[in-house]
Amino acid sequence: MTGGGLSAAPTTDAALSARAVAKHYRGGIRALDGIDLDIPVGSITALVGPNGAGKSTLMKAWVGFEPPSRGSVTVLGIDPFKDRSGALDRLGYVSQRPALYRGLTVHDHVALAVSLRPGFDAELSERRLAQLDIPLGQDSRTLSGGQQAQVMLALALGTRAPVLVLDEPLASLDPLARREFLHVLVDAVRSAGATAVLSSHVITDIEQACDRIVVLGGGRKILDESIAQAVGAHRVVEGDPAPVAGFRRVAGFPGPLGEPITLWRADGDRPDPPGFRPATLEELVLGRLASSRRPRTEPDRSTDEPPPPPPAGGRPS
Prior knowledge:
Layout: E1 14-25, E2 29-40, E3 44-48, H1 55-63, E4 70-75, H2 84-88, E5 91-94, H3 106-116, H4 122-131, H5 145-158, E6 163-167, H6 175-192, E7 195-199, H7 203-209, E8 212-217, E9 220-226, H8 227-233, E10 234-238, E11 247-254, E12 260-266, E13 277-278, H9 281-291
Parallel strand pairs: 3-7, 3-8, 5-6, 6-7
Antiparallel strand pairs: 1-2, 1-4, 8-9, 10-12, 10-13, 11-12
Helix pairs in contact: 4-5, 5-6
């Protein structure tokens, strides 16, 4: 949540940044393995990847919950582990599971936010809830999953934070609740000139709300691009043809009926070879995720990122 009278902060073209971020857990588990990433100011960026790809770990680092084992993160140029209050003043956060207090009404939660966060815009928060017909006097225990998510979003928007971090808030919502949530999010972000990063497994949600996509796999960044550019550059073809001049093979993956499909990336503006067609966003994501499952000993030519440096020595933390 953000309040009035923000302290001076470094200026930056990125709302959220990560530099060589690695996160190692006991037992040698690597949640992140040298991530470099910038989330542009004013964008709505989708963070996509399978379970265990490191999405939540990276978001929790930006919020100041999970310190990296190596590397650094910043929020509008502020390191949340060196200036926690300065970073959090500029963040609104929505978790996957609504963090509402049992026995408190919706209005109680707004009042609590006002008491905890100077400058909290209760009028804005309550106006968003009224648009969705969520009664302020309703006990949080009686809210549906979609209503709880909307309350969490309204509280985050009431902070008027310039950066919103949303960690799979749509995971348990039905299609209508997801669409309503995304409509409120996009309207609020665009009208305020804010920045949002949204993790989700549902590709239709991403297409509806986001203008950029970041795909994580195996703890690494395997795609970071505007959605329009990424979709425009990728092609798919049934089967796995021989190499084609001007196209780079990304990976093969099964189609809806189990048929083999291969994702390719065009080097520049080239005519499509016979049998090639533009990839959908879902096919693009599936192909990129398939590319991340290659053994680490095999050169990964599908990624647009250089291979990461070997991990620092010593025991994982």
